[in-house]
Design goal:
The chain has helices at residues 2-16, 63-66, 81-86; strands spanning 26-31, 45-54, 59-62, 70-73, 95-100, 121-130. By secondary structure, it is an alpha+beta fold. It has one domain (26-134): Chitinase A, domain 3. Strands 1, 2, 3, 4, 5 and 6 form a 6-stranded antiparallel beta sheet that branches. The longest helix is centred in the N-terminal third of the chain and has 15 residues, at 2-16. This is peptidylprolyl isomerase. Its EC number is 5.2.1.8. Residues 43-131 form the PPIase FKBP-type domain. Keywords: Isomerase, Rotamase, Signal.
């Protein structure tokens, strides 16, 4: 019976630690508005709220801590490739989790104590606006006119 308990404990430990960082960009939609007439695309000026963490869970940056979203032009190469890809086709108000492998993040770049080389990054992102449009109000139907 003792051997069985040790086996179960070992198996559980293996399962808990089994989650490996992704080898490619992983995009998880956490929330998408029901009505979405505009989606982000290259060339759009967007504002994004985000929290960035290392794969192991350590937070390294957050726009929420500064109280304002990050402005950027999508497709201009101003942010890491994982963001360029992960922020496309988002609706205003949409929230995603981006799991970004080193090749689409900062690669082997040494960013000191903030982000070690070859780090897999995890970002929770929220698209606040597209080209200054922060909310879309569906026009009222005028079918009765």
């Amino acid at each position: 019976m003792r051997a069985w308990g040790a086996f179960v404990a070992f198996a559980m430990a293996a399962l808990v630690g089994a989650k490996e960082p992704p080898k490619s960009l992983m995009i998880g939609v956490k929330y998408r508005p029901e009505f979405c007439p505009f989606k982000s695309q290259d060339g759009d000026q967007v504002h994004v709220h985000y929290t960035g963490r290392l794969w192991e869970g350590k937070k390294f940056d957050s726009s929420y801590d500064r109280g304002e979203p990050l402005p950027l032009k999508l497709g201009a190469g101003a942010v890491i490739a994982g963001w360029e890809q992960g922020l496309r086709d988002m609706c205003i108000g949409e929230k995603r989790k981006l799991q970004i492998p080193p090749e689409l993040g900062y690669g082997s770049m040494n960013l000191g104590d903030i982000i070690p080389p070859d780090s897999t990054l995890v970002f929770d992102v929220e698209l606040v606006d597209i080209n200054g449009q922060s909310a879309y109000v569906q026009p009222e139907s005028h079918e009765d006119l």
